Amino acid sequence: MRNAIAVMNTKGGVGKSTLVLALAETISAFYGKNVLVIDSDAQASVSSMLMTVSGLYKLQSEGATIVDYLHATVLKNQKTDWPKFIVRNVSDVDDAGSVFLLPSDMQLTLLEREVSKESLHGRLREVIAELLAGVRKVFDVVLIDCPPGLSVLTESWLREADFHISPTKADYVSVCGLEVFRRFRSLNPEMGFAENLGVVVNMKDSTSASDEEYHRWLESKPENRCFGHAIPRMSVLQDAANFDAQKRSYLAKYPGQAGVAVRALTEEVMRRLDEAGESELASHAAAQASSAATA
User: Fold this and answer.
1) What angle is formed at CA 235 by the lines to CA 45 and CA 143, rounded to 5 degrees?
2) CA–CA dist 103, 64 (Å, integer)
3) Which strands, in side-by-side order, build the sheet including 4-7?
4) Any idea where the domains of the chain sit in the sequence?
5) Over its length of 295 residues, how does the chain's per-residue pLDDT go in tens digits?
C-alpha cells in the first residue's frame, strides 16, 4: 500500500509542521483513519504540538524517540522493534483519537553527523526502507515531517517514501526553495524518488496582491500539481500549534474558515491518494493480464 508521504521544502518558515498537524488531525477526525506522524525534524516541532512538553521530555530522557531507534539500528546495527517507539493517545483533539507519533529529539542532528562520519548512508536508507515497510502495513496514512534543507536523513525519506507534499508560502524566497528541491529531485533518478503528490500554498495572505500573483504562477506550472485549496494565514492556525492538555473538539481547534480550508485541502490529499492507489491496481491488473496472455 502506497501511503507514506514526506512533507518538506528546502526553505524553512513555510508552516510545514503545522500543516502536518492539521492534516493528521483532520484525517483522523473526519476519515477515521489511523495516522502515524514521523517527526524527522531535530526541532521536534510537531512532537511538541501533539503532546505536552513534559511528556516529550520524558520520552527523550528515556531514549524513546526516533533518534534512539536510528542510533540502535543504524549506528549499532542492532535488531530493534519500531512499535515500541510509537506513542499513542497524542493530539489534543478529542475526536482525533487515531493519531500516533514517532517523536523526535534535538540529538537527531548529531546522529546524522555520526552517520556521515561513519559513511553509513546506505545503512540509513536501508533502515528507513525497513521502517516504512513496517508502518505501511499498520497505519492508513504516514506523514513524515522533514526539516528544511537536504540532510542525509531527509534524502532517505524522500527516496523511500511513496509521495511528497511541498508546502510553500506565496513569496519569492519560498518559491526558490521549491526550485532547489526540484533540481535535487532530478539528480540520480536511478536511485528512486517519492512521487509528487502536490504543492500546497500555505499561510497565504488573502489581502496581498503579491501572494495572489505567486499563487497563480505556481498553479500555471503543471509539474507543481498545485492543490486547488490554499491554507490562509490566520491566527487560529498558529494557535492550533499550542498543545492544550485539557483537550478540545476539532471544530474548536479549527473554527470557521480555517477549518473549512484545512478540510478542503485534506479532501484533496485523500482523493489523490485514492487515485494513486486505483492507478496502481489498474497497472498491476494490466501487467497480470499481459503475463497471462503471453504464457
Assistant:
1) 35
2) 8
3) 99-102, 35-39, 141-145, 4-7, 163-168, 195-201
4) 4-294
5) 799 999 998 888 889 999 999 999 999 999 999 999 999 999 999 999 999 999 999 999 999 999 999 999 999 999 999 999 999 999 999 999 999 999 999 999 999 999 999 999 999 999 999 999 999 999 999 999 998 888 899 999 999 999 999 999 888 888 888 888 888 888 877 788 999 999 999 999 989 999 999 999 999 999 999 999 999 999 999 999 999 999 999 999 999 999 999 999 999 999 999 998 776 655 555 656 555 566 5
d(CA 72, CA 131): 13
| Alpha-helix runs per DSSP H in 10-52 | 16-31, 45-50
pTM recorded for the entire structure? 0.93
Say whether domain 4-294 belongs to CATH 3.40.1400.10.
no
**Phi and psi torsions of 231, nearest 5°:** -100, 120
**What is the rounded CA–CA span in Å between residue 118 and residue 44?**
25
* Residue that has been written with the C-alpha cell 503532546 in this structure: 51
Which residues 6+ apart lie within 8 Å of 5 measured at CB?
141, 142, 143, 144, 161, 162, 163, 164, 165, 194, 197, 269
Distance in angstroms (rounded) separating the CA atoms of residues 116 and 119: 5
The answer to whether 49 and 21 are in contact (CB under 8 A) is yes
Q: Give CA–CA dist 294/133, Å, rounded.
A: 32
